[in-house]
Amino acid sequence: MISFDLLVAICLVYVVFLFGVAFWAERRAARGRGGWLRSPMIYTLSLSVYCTAWTFYGAVGYAARSGLEFVTIYLGPTLVFIGWWWTLRKLVRIGRTQRITSIADLISSRYGKSNTLGVIVTLIAVVGTTPYIALQLQSVTLSFAVFAPGGVGPWLASDLNSASLTVAVGLALFTVLFGTRNLDANERHHGVVTAIAVEAVVKLVALLAVGIFVVWGIAGGAAAALARIDASALAGMPIQPGRWAGLTFLAAAAILTLPRMFQVLVVENEDERHLATASWAFPAYLFLMSLFVVPIAVIGLDEMPPGANPDLFVLTVPLAHGHDGLATLAFLGGFSSATSMVIVAAIALSTMVSNHIVMPLFLNLSRHGATMSGDVRKLVLRSRRLSIAGVLLLGYLYYRLTGGSEALAAIGLIAFAGVAQVLPALLGAILWRGATRKGAIAGLLAGFFVWAYTLFLPSFGEGAIMGATLLAEGPGGIGWLRPQALFGLDGMDPLVHAVVFSIFANVLAFVTVSLFDFPSPMERLQGAQFVNVFDHSSAGQGWSQGRAEAEDLLLMTQRILGAEDAQRLFQRAAAGQGRQGYLPEITPEFLQQLERVLAGSVGAATAHAMVGQIVGRSSVSVEDLMAVADETAQMMEYSSQLEAKSEELARTARQLREANEKLTELSVQKDAFLSQISHELRTPMTSIRAFSEILMEGADLSPQELGKYARIIHEESLRLTRLLDDLLDLSVLENGQVTLNLQPVDLHDLIERALAATARLQGGHALRITRDPAAERVQIVTDGDRLSQVFINLISNAQKYCDASAPELRISVRSTAEGVAVDFTDNGSGIPQKSQAIIFEKFARLSDPRSAGGAGLGLAICREIMLRLGGSIVYRDGRPGAAFRLTLPREMAAAA
Amino acid sequence: MARAPAFPDPEGYRRRRLMDLARLLPLLGLCLFLLPVLDADDGLGAGLLIYLFAAWFGLIATAALLARRLCAASAPAPDPAKPGAEAGGQEGAE
């Protein structure tokens, strides 16, 4: 037999080799050269952590005791994997898009980031996994004991204990070294996964080698082996239908809910397409693992002395035939199974414990903690390491407490049933949008409680935790509450009984509470994101090379900062890393710096989401989105304020410009007015001066001449007076200093008055007036004197300027909705189009001033009066003669 | 959401039937694996052992072919899955 020392040496070399593999894989991954390390085969092999030492050694023992039943442990996962299109695909997609770090994280973030759920799932996982870790320690220790030096007899308990402690410490060291090297956002551990893949190959090869040796080496061929099976004690061992179906279900549930399986299946997944390969390759692995179990069990039962532990046939059968090498290989296989399970379970559990228990506690205790990211990183790593040590310590203590009893061997299935309680909440999380947080909590607690009551606590044996009377008669003598025969169902296998009742209670509570609960907005958002994950995400290929990432980061940064700034930033970063002229390495420091710079432009949450999108390949979580929306809202607010301000500025500038134009115009008008007025004053003054000079000098003037000259002087001074009167009137009107004398007036009377006043002035032309007296009978409230002034002006204009041979003026009054319209239309040639624009201006005279005798202020005054009266005067184009329309309100507003 | 055409091209039709097969395969497996229960009293024997492993192997081989075909078929399309058909118990929309 191989010496124990040599075995220990081989074992140490193997461990060192594993360390080396893990280290090398980490280095490769860190350099961004994943290559075949990221292949679907490595992924499939890493899934083999499902096959622990319990299955490596225990399957043969199980077969020796219960026949074919062991195979259900592999059939359940097979069904789940070939049915990957149903659940696994979705689970992996959700895990990738939501940056899920553990099963507790998945459940908690689906149900509205509820940390209560995270804690519950973590506790269930710890309770379910600790015995399992103890089981691994036991199997490694027992397998060491098989090789114990024959001279000194079987190992004492102290030897076993020290061996298991050594193993536990070694495993803790390995896990801390490779499981918490870095705090990667996506929680992938290339080193660990690669080492586990190597171990998977070792255990498969070991079991196959032992199987081949047994079938062809001992039994003498496949046909002979089958014949021996038929002839063995196992032949005809009946299948228990309840256990068969129940265990298949349990194993199927376990592959989804075991924390270590979730870790390798979802968290460590690199590429969704790997799952397609694993969908058949992993069942194939399980197939090969169980192919030789029955032959080994049968041969072991035949060949080994009665009373030999069937759990160790894999080791003892080759040893009994003197095949030390084969036995050593088998030992390494078992050692691999145990260590890989413990390492992955410890990583998964420590992530959960640290994220859902330690960190929330710490952050609650020290409120100031989360401000500096560097601090938190260190803190998280430390809490992970402590959690790993704690998990392994728990396993070791459990092992010491139960002392390698038979109870420990049965604990595997009990643990399966415990973690299976997460299944309803998990399936509800990804398939049912109506599942709520309270429903999940109710289901988990109900299922966990029933499981503990019917299976876990009784498993410690009578009198350990539950008394014999409690087990036999139920609590307080209530028979239908007996832990292992709820509702009097005592004909069932205890395990099936517990599974049926715990899952039933779980689903019932989960569905009922969910149906009557109303989820929070966060839950509904997350629910939609999880259940409809295929709507919200694409399988899009990620970046396999760091180089591509740097380029994409640069492109994105250019879009935000502009090309020059972005390139300067990247060049500086590259120079800082000693890589002048190249793109910088994507180090966490660089990403942090980049995020900070980008945050200055787009806000911290947006920057984080953008960088995460490119580097992490993960989608943006709801919280991120909310933060982004917040920032965007702030920015929009700010920019809308800016916009309002700039609009106001533009308006003010326009007003200023308009005012300036008006001022310029006014200045021009004033100049024109001054020159006009001086001209207007000058003309009569010149003639007055000339004639008065004639009168002063000429004593020899005839009385007719005297009279004539005096009349001219008189007329001219009258003209001056009229001009000055008009100017005064206009200035009063324009300055708004006029006082209006409002009273009810009759339009007919006003027109009569105006006509009477103009009849006196009538010169040579006889103007015929056409009127409709009936329509003129309109009462309005206005200033009658001012209005008749306008009428007079218009009528006298018609007298002066109407050039028809038989001049005629039509005055028509029309009532409109707004008030009254009075039209003055003559039958002359009208006003040419080009002059229409200026007729209301001051001193606008179209014909020779002499002939008209006015100063050109009439229409300007009319316009001012109409404005004061709240109406208007317009020239109506397109009529045969000159046509003016006055519009007046019926009742002038008092304010005017 | 744009609805898929009622009568997709033959390629799309084939892909959907592949997905159907992917969904049905575990049910077939379940039936095959539960079959021994019907004759539970016969118990373990070479015949049962051979049946079980043969059925298992057949499932694995079918799954392997299916995975390969599915990957090849879905590689060009962004995502062939229609979430509505994904899960029976799921709500359409809230």
Automatic annotation (TrEMBL), chain A:
InterPro entries: HATPase_C_sf, HATPase_dom, His_kinase_dom, HisK_dim/P_dom, HisK_dim/P_sf, Na/Glc_symporter_sf, Na/solute_symporter, Sensor_HK_Regulatory
Record-linked Pfam families: HATPase_c, HisKA
Domain Histidine kinase: 676-892
Coiled coil (residue ranges): 628-676
Sequence intervals crossing the membrane: 6-25, 45-64, 70-88, 116-134, 163-180, 200-223, 244-262, 282-301, 341-363, 384-401, 407-432, 439-456, 495-516
EC main group: transferase
GO cellular component annotations of the record: membrane
Alphabetized UniProt keyword annotations: Coiled coil, Kinase, Membrane, Phosphoprotein, Transferase, Transmembrane, Transmembrane helix, Two-component regulatory system
Annotated localization: Membrane
Membrane topology: Multi-pass membrane protein
Catalytic activity: ATP + protein L-histidine = ADP + protein N-phospho-L-histidine
Molecular-function GO terms, alphabetical: phosphorelay sensor kinase activity; transmembrane transporter activity
Enzyme Commission number(s) of this protein: 2.7.13.3
Xref: PANTHER family: HISTIDINE KINASE 1, TWO-COMPONENT HISTIDINE KINASE
Family membership noted in the UniProt record: Belongs to the sodium:solute symporter (SSF) (TC 2.A.21) family.
Entry protein name: histidine kinase
Organism name: Rhodovulum adriaticum (Rhodopseudomonas adriatica)
Source taxonomy: Bacteria, Pseudomonadati, Pseudomonadota, Alphaproteobacteria, Rhodobacterales
Automatic annotation (TrEMBL), chain B:
Region feature (Disordered): 75-94
Keywords tagged on the record: Membrane, Transmembrane, Transmembrane helix
UniProt superkingdom: Bacteria
Residues annotated as transmembrane: 21-38, 44-67
Descriptive protein name: Uncharacterized protein
